[in-house]
UniProtKB/TrEMBL annotation:
Boundaries of every Fumarylacetoacetase-like C-terminal domain copy: 86-247
Pfam family, one: FAA_hydrolase
Keyword annotations from UniProtKB, A to Z: Hydrolase, Lyase
Record Gene3D superfamilies: Fumarylacetoacetase-like, C-terminal domain
GO molecular function, one term: hydrolase activity
UniProt name for this protein: Fumarylacetoacetate hydrolase family protein
InterPro entries in UniProt: Fumarylacetoacetase-like_C (IPR011234), Fumarylacetoacetase_C_sf (IPR036663), Hydratase-Decarb/MhpD_sf (IPR050772)
Top-rank taxon: Bacteria
Amino acid sequence: MPSPPSSLDLSRAGAVATALLDAFETGRPLDPISATHADLTVDDAYAIQRALIAGHAAAGRTVTGRKIGLTSAGIQQQLGVDQPDFGVLFDTHTFGDGATVSLAALHTITPRIEGEVGFLLSRPLAGGVGGDAITAQDVRDATAGVMPVFELIDSRIRDWRITLVDTVADNASCLGAVIADHVTLPDAGPLPQTKMTLARDGEVVMAGEGSAVLGDPAEAVAWLANELGRRGDELPAGVPILSGSLTPAIDATPGVYVADFGPLLGTVTVTIEA
């Protein structure tokens, strides 16, 4: 990815990224980065994130999608932040509908799970190209399909004691994703009105609707396209883009999870093992 507007020393960014990667691979959490590096800005945190992604690549992981986080008021209140962020998905941590996922195999620390709407674009989007910002309608026009998704999140920061800087540096607290088949946008119905229930072992534990995600999940995707454009990057076509959780996250304890988005968009299921 192109470099964001950060003046952070590359060796310092690399050192923080190395510590985050070690925590990801071992399950040993870190103290908050925002406490040990109190001068970091959000742009500095994205510089660390990019160094972290390079570390994952060196470890053999491939970026297979993008994720947007912190898009609903519930999630922002839960984590004590006040704006969205973004990160990436890796091939080793992306699963199909109905998968069984082992927390031990993934070296999780304090994992949580969220139900989201995923997007597939038919063409790349980047805000600021020619001076024009991407709108939600631009996103809808470029959408090849949408699908039910579970995002698995985890913080490499001990006890989720995070600020925006902490979660941005830590790849937006992403662990992985479980992705169901996509349908066309017209077949999915109006996404702001889409209602979702999230059940664990047959018991509904969360319920929300698409309007919780910046008013419309397409607005979240437009936000990301504009943010990436500002940083000299673009939102790619043909890969899953997670638009953000419809509800606060719940603890990803062992069990069978189903997010039901109704008869039009469908469901996604995952079995989580210890």
